[in-house]
Design goal:
The structure is a single chain. The protein has 123 residues and is mainly alpha-helical. It contains seven helices and two strands.
C-alpha cells in the first residue's frame, strides 16, 4: 500500500488508538475505552477519532448488532515504512545514510549494537 501523507498521516490521538487496534486486530469503541489510560477521553471523542480513521481509509467499520467493530486496513509495518520514507525524503533530502547516521549518533548506538544491526541487515 502506498503511503499518502495527506490522507494517511496519523495524529497523536489516532496513532494511540491505532496501536491498540493493531495489537488487538479488531475492537469496538468500548474496548478501546477500556484500554486507554486515565484520564480517559470521552466515549464520543474516541468514536469521532475512529470515524475519522474510517474516512481516511485506515480502518474499516462493520456493524455488529448495536455496535461497530473496527479493523485496520493498513498494517503497522506498512504505516511505519511509509512514515519513515516520508521522513527520510522530507527531513534528510532522501539520503538513507544521513537518516541512519542521525539515529546512530543521537541514540548513541554502541559498536557492538551496530555490528548486530549490520548482521541482521545482511540476512
Amino acid at each position: 500500500m502506498n503511503f499518502d501523507t495527506k490522507s494517511k498521516s496519523l495524529t497523536r490521538a489516532e496513532l494511540h488508538l491505532m496501536n491498540i487496534l493493531w495489537d488487538k486486530g479488531q475492537v469496538t469503541v468500548n474496548e478501546l475505552q477500556a484500554e486507554l489510560p486515565e484520564p480517559k477521553p470521552a466515549y464520543t471523542t474516541t468514536l469521532t477519532v475512529m470515524q475519522v480513521l474510517t474516512r481516511k481509509g485506515i480502518v474499516s467499520s462493520e456493524r455488529q448488532g448495536k455496535t461497530n467493530v473496527y479493523r485496520p486496513l493498513m498494517s503497522r509495518d506498512n504505516y511505519l515504512k511509509g512514515w519513515l520514507e516520508e521522513t527520510r525524503n522530507t527531513l534528510f533530502k532522501g539520503s538513507l545514510s544521513a537518516f541512519l547516521t542521525f539515529f546512530a549518533k543521537h541514540e548513541k548506538i554502541s559498536k557492538t549494537e551496530m555490528e548486530k544491526i549490520l548482521e541482521e541487515m545482511a540476512q
